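Sample pair:
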Amino acid sequence: MNNKKGFTLVELLAVIVILAIIMIIAIPAVLSTMETARKKSLVEYANKAVLKAEEKYTTRSLEGLPIRGVIVYDIVSDFDFNNTGDYKGYVLIDATKTDKRSFYVYLYDNSYLINLKKSTDISVDSIEDVESIEVIASIEKLVDTAGFNSYYDASSSVINETNNSKYEFLNGLKLDGHKYINTQVIPTDNTKIELEIDDPNFEAIMGSRTTYKSEDSLAIFGQFTSAYVNYIIYWGDKSASLNVKNPAVAPIKVTFDNKTFKINEKDSSVLSPTVNLKAKYPMFLFSVSNGGAPDYRVFQGTFYSCKIYENGKLIRNFVPVKVKATGETTIYEKVEKKEYSFIKYN
């Protein structure tokens, strides 16, 4: 007689309950492990992308392509290593400063996103859920969000403007010594000026005065040789000069206000007594206004940018551009978003 017994209903229910408890405990742990592994993979890929961007930046420099400014690398089209996680995004290299570079990493898949300026090592703590934030699809929007208004696409040697399609923004413009612009800014003691230029041969760069050595006057002159860089600033009947070894890196950045005179943020001169920057007429750029007429020494060299601040606020940001429709080169001012036509000087 067959006397085998099966499981009772109570025993089966007990087994099911035990299995359910095990699953309740185990599944979250397994999912958490999977999520952590996926995040670590994203972090590993982000760090790999930064190294690749740095490598391509070095190659770009060796090939003679522009390296000053913001350069954007698309991780899908610009990088040649295996994209196993179906990642998308960009690496921005901020090379606007002469002494250092910084990185902005924007990388995502269907679930997670890294969106940060790489001042420290990228970690799992840097990751956000894509469901809780807006995924930025375009380079232009990303660059604008990161606080820049122009950039180089890594595959291009032309600056792209995030909010302007009329102009092609140039990385430097060679001037022939026969044209200047009126900045329409009358300097005060609260004015600060940042210039990026190269190759002047003791030419008037910018300024305004009533007559030579008049009390209400400001003028800056520059001279470059293969060995040194020399700038002289005149105010009234006083002057100060700064002579440094030519760093052989273009452009040279000159910064001055009524207290300090700097070249490339390193070599500086404390102006004593402080400069009286007040003038009667608006400043010219690429020349010095002499009672409203240009100085005979008009700037001949390469111009990159000129920023003018008043009480710490940026009021003018001049950059060279090419008008796409005509091919004409001119100067564009980014704060007021308008073109400044050259005035010819013969």
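The chain has two helices and 26 strands.
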